[in-house]
Structure formats: structure tokens, C-alpha cells
Amino acid sequence: MTYVVTDNCIRCKYTDCVEVCPVDCFYEGENMLVIHPDECIDCGVCEPECPAEAIKPDTESGLDKWLKINAEYASVWPNITARKDAPADAKDMDGVPDKFETLFSPKPGGGD
């Protein structure tokens, strides 16, 4: 089992989860985070820290797409281990539908 970041992280990009991760398995894209599935130890401390509720256990149904996205981008985006401020419009972006299709950026973020 691993945890995965889903589409509600896009353009919300809260990093509270990063701060509590004991194994530093988060990677930063321009407008979202992902979890490296081979580094995640399934502790679950990140899940309740996400204000956008974008982090899910991979045991939930319908997450195959997100498992692949997390694995793909964790291998190319930089590691992030410290909390950063969320985007100014993060609250407005929470719950916006179809974020992956309309707002996702494959560009890397700044990392640490």
C-alpha cells in the first residue's frame, strides 16, 4: 500500500503534508505535489494534514490513474521536504472539477 496525491491538489498545493512526512517522499511540480510510491512507508500521517483532502490511500477504488501519475512525476520532479506557503488562490481552487484535464502542469516545481 501507498498513499497518492489526487487532482484536488492541483493549484491548491498545500504543503502541510510535506512537513510531517517521516521519509521525505513528496515531490514538487509547478502546481501540485506527488508521492513516490516506492518511498512511502504507508504511515498515513500526511492524509489528515491536507486541507484539500487530496491525499488518499491506494486501497480506495478508482485511483489507478493517480498511482501512475504519482510514480511518473516523482521520478522527474524535485524532492520537497519543507513546508511552503500555498498559492494565494488555493482556497478558491479547492473542489474545482476536472483539474487534471484543464489545469495540470507537467513542469517541475522548485523543490528544496
List the helices and strands and how they pair.
Blueprint: E1 3-5, H1 16-20, E2 26-28, E3 33-35, E4 55-57, H2 64-74, H3 90-93, H4 99-103
Antiparallel strand pairs: 1-4, 2-3
Labels describing this entry:
112 residues; Alpha-Beta Plaits; single chain; two-stranded antiparallel ribbon; iron; metal ion binding
Number of domain modules: 1
Broad shape: globular
Class based on secondary structure composition and strand pairing:
alpha+beta
The CATH C-level name is Alpha Beta
Number of helices: 4
At CATH level 3, the topology is: Alpha-Beta Plaits
CATH architecture name = 2-Layer Sandwich
Query: What is the N-to-C order of secondary-structure elements (H for helix, E for strand)?
Result: EHEEEHHH
Largest sheet, in brief, is: 2 strands, antiparallel
Function: Ferredoxins are iron-sulfur proteins that transfer electrons in a wide variety of metabolic reactions.
Domain 4Fe-4S ferredoxin-type: 1-30, 31-60
InterPro entries: 4Fe4S_Fe-S-bd, 4Fe4S_Fe_S_CS, 7Fe_ferredoxin, Fd_C, FdxA, RnfB_subfamily
Keywords: 3Fe-4S, 4Fe-4S, Electron transport, Iron, Iron-sulfur, Metal-binding, Repeat, Transport
